[in-house]
Amino acid sequence: MATVVQAYQFALDPTEHQRAMLSSHCGAARFAYNWGLGRMKAVLDQRSAERSYGIVEDELTPSWNWSAYSLRKAFNAVKGEVAPWWGENSKEAYASGLANLSRALDNWNKSRAGKRGGRALGFPRFKSKRSTWSFRVSTGSFGLSDVDRRHVRLPRIGLVRTHESTRKLARHVERGTARIRSATVSFRRGRWHVSFSVEIERSEPASATCGGTVGVDLGVKHLAVLSTGEVIVNPKHLEVAQRELLRLQRQAARRCGPDRRTERKASNRWRRTQVRIATLYTAIANARRDGLHKLSTRLVDEFDTIVVEDLHVAGMVRNRRLARSIADVGMSELRRQLDYKTTWSHRQLVVADRFYPSSKTCHGCGTVKAKLRLSQRVFTCDHCGHTADRDLNAAATSRAWRPPTVGGRRKTSPLETHVRPAMLATGTATGRPRPAGPGPTLRRKATAQEHFRTFPERINDISDDATAAQLIEGYKQLVRRAHRDGMRVLGGTLTQFEGSVVWTPERERTRQRVNAWIRGTELFDGVVDFAAATAQPEDPLRLRPEYDSGDGLHPNDAGARAMAEAVELSALHRRHH
After folding, report:
1. Is position 309 annotated as part of the catalytic site?
2. Quick one: which of 15, 195, 356, 522 has the most CB atoms within 10 Å?
3. Is 548 a catalytic residue?
4. Which is the catalytic residue, given 92, 328, 353, 391?
C-alpha cells in the first residue's frame, strides 16, 4: 500500500443565493491578497527610498515578515477598520488570500536570489475582478455530505449540490483509506468547481499487460506514434469546432460589448454569446483532456517503461503557422499525466534529451542525417538505405535512448543538458563519427588545464625554434584530433594571441569561428577518411589522398590554416622580441 496525494474535482450546482456567497468568498480572498500586497509594497518602497538617502540599515523602517502566519495576524488586527463586512464570509477565505500572497512573495524572493529554478519571477501584482475566482478551505466544517452522495459541505455556505455523484471519494472515506486535507473552490469554464486534496492509500498496481519499453513520438499529423508501429489518430478537437467557434465570435463582434473608455455596459445578447463561446471552449478542453487521460492510462497499464521526448513546446508554438495545431495536441498535459501515473503504478518514465535528434537518427544503423525538412514524412538513411515513416523511426529511435552519463554518473545538473546521445554511429551530420564517450559537456566553463591539448601548455612557454615548430605541428594535430574524439581544444577564447598578432578581418573571422568551436558549435569543413583509418592503423589521422596538401590540413579548412599561421607569427614575434 502506498499513500499519495490525489485531487478529486466535482462540478457544483449551487442556488442563486449560494452563487452570491461563493462570489463573496472569492472577493474576500482577493481583497485580503491586495491589502497585504499594498502594505508590503509600501514598506519595501519606503525602505528603498531611505537607503537612497544614505540612512543606515539599523535606522530604516522596520520590515514586514511575509509569512502566512504574520500576514494573518496583521490582518486580524485591522480587519474591523479596513473590512467592516469581514463577518459575512468565512475566515478561511481571508487566510487563503494571505497564504497565496506569502507564497508569491517567497517565490519572488527566491527567484531574485537565484535559489529558484525556471524563468525569473517579477514582483507580485494586484488582482482584479477579472482574475481567476478561487479560495481554499483547510479547517472548519467542510467535506462530503453525510446525507447523500450528491452534496458537499462548505463553511458558512452549507450543503451545495454537485452535478455528479461523489461515491468514488465517499467509498474511500468510509473505508478509512482516504483523508480530505483541503478543498479549493473555483469558478472556471463557466462553472463552479470544488477540488478536494485527498491523502489516499493506493493498492499495489497490477503488472503491465505487455511489458517492455515503448517509445512515444508526439506530433501534429498524428497524436502519437508508438515504437510498436501503432498510430494514435489526432482528433483535432479545436480544428473540428473551429467553424462553430468563428461563427459565435463573429456574432459577438456584431453585438454591443463593454467599453471602458465610454463606460458602456455590455448588452444581454453579447453576454449570452460569450456564455456560448465559453461553453464551446469547455467542451473542447474536456474532450481533449478525456482523450489524453485514456491514452496515458493505457500506456501505463501496458508497458513497464515509457520513453518520451523533452519537447520545448513554448518555443514550438512561436511558429505562427503551426501554433494552433501544436496547442491543440496537449503535449505538456500528456507528459504531466504520464509523470504522476507512472509514479503511482511503479512504472518508469524516461524523458529523452531535448537535443537528441530522434527524427534524424536512423533506427537501423544509428547514422544521423545532416538535414531533414519537416515536409519529408518518409525517412531514408543515406548510409544503410533503411526507409520508414518519419514519426515511426523517431519513436523507435527514442525507445533505444538511455540517459547519458557524465564522468561515470547520471546527468543531473541543468548545465549538462547538451550531452551527446548515447546511441553511437559512424557517419554523422558533420561527416565525422560520434565519440566513444558522452562527448563534451556544453555550457560549462572549462579550464585551460583540461582542454588546451598542445605539447607546450601555453604560447608563453616558447623558448627556442624547436619548441615553436613543435607548437605549430601540435596545433595541426589538434584540428584532426578534435574531429576524432569530439573534444574541445581550447579552454578559453583566443584573446591570448591578441597581444602579439595583428588581426586582419580574415583572421578576426577565424577567431570568431574558433571561439564558436569552443562553445560547441560546428566550424571546420575538413573531411577525415575514417574508413581508411581502420585499414591503415599506422596513420589513423591521415587525410584522403585527394585532400592531402602536404601539411596535414584540409585545403578548404581556412580556419585551421589561418590559425596555424597566427600561431607561427606569434612564435616568430616572441623569438625576435
Report:
1. yes
2. 356
3. no
4. 391
